Amino acid sequence: IVRLPLLVVVRRKMSAAMTAMAAAPIRAASSRRARRSKAASKASKRNIARPAVSDPSMVSPGVDPSVFTETELTASQMQDLASQRPVANFQSRFGDDEPRKGADILVEALEREGVDCVFAYPGGASMEIHQSLTKSKTGVRNVLCRHEQGEVFAAEGYAKCTGKVGVCIATSGPGATNLVTGLADALLDSVPMVAITGQVPRRMIGTDAFQETPTVEITRQITKHNYLVMDVNDIPRIVREAFFLASSGRPGPVLIDIPKDVQQQMAIPYWGPKVSLNGYLSRLPSPPSHPQMERVLDMIKDAKRPVVYAGGGCLDAAPELKEFIESTGIPITNTLMGLGCYPASDELCLDMLGMHGAVYANYAVDSADLLLAFGVRFDDRVTGKLEAFAARASIVHIDIDPAEIGKNKEAHCPVFSNIKPALRTLNSIIRADKPELDFSEWRTDIAKQRAKFPFAYTETDDYIVPQHAVELLCKMTEGKAIISTGVGQHQMWAAQHYKFDEPRNWLTSGGLGSMGFGLPAAIGAAAARPDAVVVDIDGDGSFVMNIQELATLHAENLPVKMFVLNNQHLGMVVQWEDRFYGANRGHTYLGSPDKDYAVTQDEADIFPDFVKICEGFRVPAERVVRKADLPAAIQRMLDHDGPYLLDVMFPHQEHVLPMVPGGGTFKDTITTGDGRTPETKDMKTL
């Protein structure tokens, strides 16, 4: 008897478990969270039964995934429609009975999904896929980012600005693990994405082979679902399922892990398999009933101080949301993820709420007697102390994910539904009912707060303040640019002072708060929407984290404009140090240790020198330090035909205001003070 070491036995069992998982049922992130919410469970059970659609012919082949939550369908109809690929009558470069590699099948499956662009970095376990990409029948473009984190953030940017599924591809081992942050980011921000990773050959799984990691196990908790492909014949079905899962219901990332020998295996694909998603399909919400929406209208009629709290779930329901706001006259505030779903230029828009939101928006929520929460999850950066958030209000919560209903804040009227059909139904009831609604007194009350506490900042004659810089950029782009950001002070200033009138022009890392997101996301947006002006408003700390993507800009000739707000510090952490830690610096200075630009005011002491770095990457750049020079510098950046970096210097003492301390309430709002002469009453200890 040969006795194997225990570690070998464990690894072989792990390999067997990973193999079995390829056929395991869906375990969506939302279903895991649903177990924690009784209200979510009840909401889900109420919506399982589905009457037949009155006219199935009304649903066309290759339908948008939103149809599944906007139309009453039988289980068989849902399966049939979910199995249909977006591209009909596809002409393959192979004969019908011609064997081809698994990698060729994978690329053709992407083509049949309508994929026009991927973000992929090659390696030993994924090079077969890259070889097949070079022979793409439809000319699928690969944007070669210089780091896998860059490519996954670029895929997010592509998805966020289009609503389509973003696709990224990486090799095994470190290539796959470099995707982890982006996958977690996409899950928290509900971004549709399919990530494809190479894996070591099947026989080597569990042996600690070169560049082997258990990718499925690592990513299980940060994806909506994932697959380990153990049979080449499963590729067509798995790719169809992955794209459907990523884009339907509450969107999110799906990962497909493909061993190299499966990529090399010869097979004749069958393109007509049915998806195996019965459990998942049964959990998608049906359109809301008229009685549910009539109850919402009754609550609106009874209210004196209603306010709409709209989030990222409303991005694809902007027309319906606008009709609702205009017909009711109810003021609306947006989350960070929901900016643009309602025009910021409209007088009913209260801008962003939350930790760094408008005082008047937070006042409206604090004083409201009815909170209409549409496509939101009551995030801690919005609510602060949960018990005090909207404490005077009845709450209507409409969301596509039953796990979010009642998770953080109990709703008096929970509605498990896609926001688009919910608002359509509500709007139709309002048109028929013609209620007499008058909230003018409430709007006047909010207007007084807006006049008293605007998004204010110190006007200067010489040096640049970042709020002014963002406002000027907004003016010179007419508010029509696609804006990406990193994470930190610059992100909040962009959210406060760049006014978005349309959805999907604002790309930021909201839930995870991933520094380094801005430049790669802008790359994805520029690839997806080449006719748009794309500007990465970034901070010097965030920008450095994926600075290698300057090479991608030059190589791909992507005209991304980089507007770097540079204070030589980790600005947001510095602000917290000033406010809560007695201004004690805990490794937040990013400049040169021997010469501090803030002290010398000598441009030669600025570190790192982004202008010189850009020169090495063959990307034009310039620096501006004086307010009078800023307009012309912005104009040169915008006029340049290609990528361009503008390094905007400003003092590190600037703070993002207003500010509600973490876990605080509206009464704790800070509106004054900065790092120069902070008022004692604003300086607190956590």
What does this structure look like?
The strands form four sheets. Strands 3-2-4-5-7-6 form a six-stranded parallel sheet, sandwiched between helices. It has a six-stranded parallel sheet with strand order 11-10-9-12-13-14, with helices on both faces. A six-stranded parallel sheet has the order 16-15-17-18-20-19, with helices on both faces. Residues 1-61 have low confidence and may be disordered. Helix content is 38%, strand content 13%. The radius of gyration is 26 Å and the shape is globular. Helix 18 (380-383) links the parallel strand 12 (370-374) and strand 13. It has 686 residues and is of the alpha/beta class. The N and C termini lie far apart (63 Å). Helix 6 runs parallel beside helix 12 (235-247).
Q: What gap, in angstroms, lies between the N and C termini?
A: 63 Å
Oligomeric description of these chains: single chain
Mean pLDDT: 91
Proportion of residues in extended strands: 5-15%
Structural class: alpha/beta
How would you summarize what this structure contains?
This protein has 686 residues and is an alpha/beta fold. It has 29 helices and 20 strands. The strands form 4 sheets. The chain has a 6-stranded parallel beta sheet, sandwiched between helices.
